[in-house]
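Subject — a protein and its fold

Tokens — whole-number codes for backbone shape
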Amino acid sequence: MDFTRINLTQNEFQELRDIWAQWDDKAKQLFYQNYGDLPYLLDIKVDKHLFRAMVQFWNPAYSCFTFGEVNLVPTLEEYTTLLRCPKVQGNKAYVRAANLPTFVKKLMMITGMSEQWAAARVQQKGEGKCIPWASLRDLILAHPDVKRRVDVLALSIYGLSIFPKAMRHIDEAVADLFDRLVTFGRLIRFLAECSLKIILP
């Protein structure tokens, strides 16, 4: 009989919650406009017993749950129910882009900081690169540009809550995804503005 050891350690979100609580309504509205209901993820409690039960039936070879002879792949709606997060937007598109900028360049674009700042904070963790949460936290607290603070907080939520890989670090893959989501969102807003100008000259 095979046994799998399960480690339910997760990142602590209290610092993220404290930062969110300190923001004024203007900053929160800017966040909601750009990233939707992402802050709700900070209040999700992981049901450890449900998680252990799910892992017991997970088949990593096929990326599905196996119950006897039946294989099940949850839908996005089922995942949001299991995670108790009904406000997740399921209409996002994810595309793999070619010729991505380096991790340092992505951090520069997201944070608005210099190449030296980004390069000094990038660390190697296992096979991938990442940036410590502490560096991003300090930036959120001190950056003079509200838009940059909003972007860095969103990146932190993605990296610590949705796609955690190394404890208290945000992985390079999360920055890739985040960069594409931001670019895609800007494209959608631009197309929407253009269509309004065509409809209402």
Remarks:
- The beta strands are 58-59, 64-67, 70-72, 123-125, 128-132, 169-171.
